[in-house]
Design goal:
- The complex is a heterodimer of chains A (116) and B (113).
- By secondary structure, chain A is mainly β.
- Chain B is 0% helix and 57% strand.
- In chain B, the strands form 2 sheets. In chain B, strands 2, 4, 5, 6, 9, 10 and 11 form a 7-stranded mixed β-sheet that branches. Chain B has a 4-stranded antiparallel β-sheet with strand order 1-3-8-7, with no helix packed on it.
- The chains are: A mainly beta (116), B mainly beta (113).
- The interface between A and B is medium-sized, with 28 and 27 residues.
């Protein structure tokens, strides 16, 4: 059974604070690690797709790093704003049971609340 | 552009009743299709995925089944709902390139009473 874990489960920060979350995943048979943002009443939205050890991706105030050898990824938010409030999910792309197929195994998510 | 439609948005069903949730994708061919569920206080659990018509892989034993009667149609069903089937169900699709992201529908909130 593939296990993808995220910490913390939830987080409250003040507007302007910087924060980070962790995603842990299996370090063997790695294909890709995805980060999503899931706002209430909306669909999960892809933030980053990370494939190479040492990858760093950035989108505005949000960035992510990847360590495939030890099986973890960090998501950073610099200068948090109330609109950053959402659940942040990571997903490990794993091989499917049929040759050439893949599936996404999600972590439990980190619920971020940014207080104005 | 590609779009994914999932319906209904909300559903309240009695225990023991059947279920059918439908998901369709437009603007792409031969997508991978997925059904996920978020139970209360938990993350997204993969229920089923499909790489083609009639090809269904089940991830966890459960009271649900899935079918793919057409290339861009994915259906989640149950013959008799249980209270534990309550949750938020999401359909998703991806292209058949291994490092691309999945795209999600709007979800269905199912409450079994």
């Amino acid at each position: 059974i593939l296990n993808v874990e995220q910490s913390p489960q939830s987080l409250h920060v003040q507007e302007g604070d910087s924060t980070n979350f962790t995603c842990s995943f299996p370090s063997s048979n790695f294909y890709a690690l995805h980060w999503y943002r899931w706002e209430t009443a909306k669909s999960p939205e892809a933030l980053f797709v990370m494939t190479l050890n040492g990858d760093e991706k950035k989108k505005g105030r949000i960035s992510a790093t990847l360590n495939t050898k030890e099986g973890y990824s960090y998501l950073y938010i610099k200068g948090s704003q109330p609109e950053d409030s959402a659940t942040y999910l990571c997903a490990f792309r794993a091989r499917g049971t049929t040759s050439g197929t893949y599936k996404y195994i999600f972590g439990t998510g980190t619920r971020l609340k940014v207080l104005a | 552009s590609q779009t994914i439609h999932q319906w209904p948005a909300t559903l309240v069903q009695p225990v023991g009743s059947p279920l059918s949730l439908e998901c369709t994708v437009e603007g792409t061919s031969n997508p991978n299709l997925y059904w996920y569920r978020q139970a209360a206080g938990r993350g997204l659990q993969l229920l089923f995925y499909s790489v083609g018509i009639g090809q269904i892989s089940s991830e966890v034993p459960q009271n649900l089944s899935a079918s793919r009667p057409q290339d861009r149609q994915f259906i989640l069903s149950s013959k008799k709902l249980l209270l534990s089937d309550s949750g938020f169900y999401l359909c998703a699709w991806s292209v058949r390139v291994r490092n691309t992201e999945a795209f999600f529908g709007q979800g269905t909130r199912l409450t079994v009473v």
